[in-house]
Every structure is written in structure tokens, then in C-alpha cells.
Amino acid sequence: MKKLKLPKHPFKGMKIYCHKCKRDNPTCNHYDIHKFKVKIHITGGGNKKKTKVLDSKDYDTAVKDAIAFKKELEANNFYKAAVVVEDRNLTILGALIEYNRYLSGNHRYTHLVKKITKGYQDECMRYCRFFLDTINDVKKVSETSILNVTQDDVARFYTWAEKHYKEKTFNKCLNEVKSFFKFIIDVEKIEMKNPFEVYVSKKVAKSNIYTLDKSEFDDILEAVDNANPIVKLGGKGEKKNMYRSYLVDGFKLSLLTGGRREEVVDLRWSNIFSTVKDVKFFKIRNIKVESLTDEDYWKYIPINTDLMNLLLELGYDDKKQTDDFILFPEREILSKTIMNDLSKGFTHYKNMANINKKVSFKNLRKTYLSWVNAVMNKDTGILSSHSTHEILERYYIDPTILTKIEEGALKISIFGA
After folding, report:
1. Which GO molecular function annotation, any one, does this entry have (predicted)?
2. Which domain holds residue 240?
3. Would 124 be classed as within a structural domain?
4. Which of 144, 170, 186 finishes a domain?
5. Confidence of residue 373 (pLDDT cuts 50, 70, 90)
6. pLDDT surpasses 50 at 34
7. What pLDDT, on the 0 to 100 scale, is given for residue 110?
8. How far is CA 331 from the centre of its chain?
9. Alpha carbons 52 and 34: distance in angstroms, whole number
10. Of 186, 202, 225, the domain-final residue
11. Given CA atoms 226, 227, 231, 232 in this order, what sign does their dihedral have?
């Protein structure tokens, strides 16, 4: 096939375009699919352009078609023309800015925006910024078109991620950057191939699920009261006191409810309800599910004997009708601060108790679910919020759930005691 060529001084805006490479004036040898393309600058439209791929492979005929296209645009005030595609030509940085708007819910295509948590948005952007950092020395991301991201750039980032992440996080990192380019292609309608479409992911070994036994948990509680609360931070020898008055109650409440940090910290006395058989349970919003949908979802935590005894210690008789927080009700700090204190405090006092297991605060939830599973077996998901259920009326519960709450409250015993 004869190679298309432009004369020394071509018609203004005339390019050679490759449908396969999605590039102007390509250096590839896909001569059979190369075509002439014209870009017409819109008068008074800033840097906006209208483009058209021309049918003729003869340069002189292509110029005539380009002139006709320009006249058609001018006649229609640049707004209406057949077979027109606006050339947005986003830079790499500009594309990431659009993606951030999309993730935050401020994108111009509101009908395409998905609801995600702020934490997940930050995570996605963090990985994408790392990608831009790895190529900025080679390609100025504020000036280079997103179309010019190549497999070399993917390889550079792949090598960087291998050095910084273990297998599971590595796969997540690459996948989030792949999603960024999917947004560019599917939402922004930029004609390009996803450079992260194909790569070799890392094999993730099946991790062990570590739980705590009663003696280990008791040792951690004892450490809170008796061990050295001071920890030395890295760097300049800074020290920090890890003790907080609500740690013991927070650890117990987490273990006996199986709640996530945010659920435990924001748990209120008014979240307690009773079945017709006077079996008590917590009914709380399923934050994790609601963050991904626009619907209301709930989760249910049966109050067994162990949990009821703790609630009595925390003032159930006096506070059961109030909207006070159960944990640290006199707080003057943010819930997030308490969450961080629980996580970091647990790790510190676990170490002070000489427990060498790879456990952290989240393993209290895993311990709870392990004991729930011993009793509930296949119905564990009903109480762990891994299944969702329709609520027929505001305070009406599906009879299936109601039965499992009552069964759980009667049978579940953490540590089997």
C-alpha cells in the first residue's frame, strides 16, 4: 500500500491519521489504514477544534474536502457539522484532574458518576499520582497528551510498584491506574487503547486468618492498665503516650459486637431495639454498603450475655433511652481520632503483652466472626452484614433476620465460654 505523505507546506490543520495507533502523523507502518485528517480551529473558541477524518487518499482531493468541511462549519457557526468529533486533547495531568472530579461526584456527566467513599477516592488518586510521578521526568505530564502514554510508561511504573508494594497492594495499585484510563476511554470518550489493559498481575498467597484466644485478649487488656504507655517514634526520638481511658472498653465493644472501627466508635444507646421475645439487638446503618449505593441498608448485632454484661457496666440502666455514644460519651474529639487511637493503641499494647501473632485491631472482628460462624454457620452473613436485606417498614425486620438475631443472642459466646 502506498504511504500517504504531506507536502512541505500542507494545508493548515491537515494531518495523516492512523486508526489503529489513534495518532496523528504516525511513524507506524499501518499504511493501508492511514487517512488524511483535518483539524479546524474554532474562531473565538479558545483552543477548541473540530476534526474530521477524510475519505480520500489523494492529497489534492483531501484538501478540497477539508475546505468544504471548514465552510460547512463556518456556515453553521461551528456548532453543526456531519461526522464531527471534538478534539479535547487532554494532557496527562488534565486527564487526572477530570478523573478526580469524576470520583468526587463533581463531573459534568452527573448521570455517570458512581458514589464512592472519600477514602476510596483518595486511594485511587494516590496510585494515579504515583504513576504520574514515575513518568514526569520523561514526559512533562502538564504538557504531554494522554494519547502519548506508552507501554514504556507502563513498564516504568510496573517496576516502581514492584519495589514499593507486596503482591496484593501491587495488584490493587495497577488495577486502579487501569481504571483511570478506562474512565478516559469510556467516559471522556478519548479514542485510545488502555495502556494498562494487559499486564502480569502478582500471585497472592492465601493469607492466614489470625484470631485471638481468651488469654491473649486478657493479656492485652491487662497491658493497657499496667504496661508502659510510652512509645518512641522514629526520626527525632519523639515519644507518644498511647494510653487512652476508653481503650479497654473500646477493645471489648469491638470484640463482642464484631463491628468495624467506625461502627463501634459511633454506636449509640438509641441503636438498641428488642424483638417480640424481648431479645435485644443493635440496629445500625450499614455504612460500607450505603457508601456504594443510594439506598438505606442496615446491619443487626445480637446482644448476647457477654455483650449485655458489658453494656450494664457502661451504664445501660441509666442511658438506654438516650442518644449518647456508648464509647467515651464525654468526647470532645473527632470520631476519627478515637478510631486511630483504638488501632494504634491495640498494636502498642499487643506488643507490650508479648503477643507475636500478626494481629491488629481488625482481628477483633475476625475473632468475633469466627465464633459466630461456629454457631451460625451458613447464616453468619446475616449478622456480619455480608448479606443485605430489604426493610419492609421502618422498624419491621424480615422474620428470617429476626429469628437469626434471637438465635445468635442465645447461642453466640465469644471464646466459647
Report:
1. DNA binding
2. 214-416
3. yes
4. 186
5. low
6. yes
7. 79
8. 29
9. 13
10. 186
11. positive
Same domain, 331 and 275: yes
pLDDT: which is higher, 34 or 309: 309
What's the whole-number average pLDDT of the chain? 82
Mean pLDDT computed over 344-365:
94
Longest dimension (CA), the chain: 91
> Quick one: 147 and 63 in the same domain?
no
Could you tell me which residues come within 8 angstroms of residue 402 by beta carbon, excluding any fewer than 6 positions away?
Answer: 275
The answer to whether position 356 is within a domain reads: yes
Residue 395 is part of a domain; what is its CATH number?
Answer: 1.10.443.10
Give residues with Cβ within 8 angstroms of 106, minimum separation 6: none
CA distances from 49 to 81, 96, 148, 184, 267 (A): 13, 21, 19, 19, 56
Q: In a 10 Å sphere around its CB, with 0-12 CB exposed, 13-18 middle and 19+ buried, how is residue 88 labelled?
A: middle
DSSP code of residue 268: B
Give the pLDDT score at 205: 78
Q: Both 56 and 96 in a single domain? A: no
Whether residue 191 lies inside any domain: the answer is no
Q: Which amino acid is at 365?
A: R
361 found inside a domain:
yes
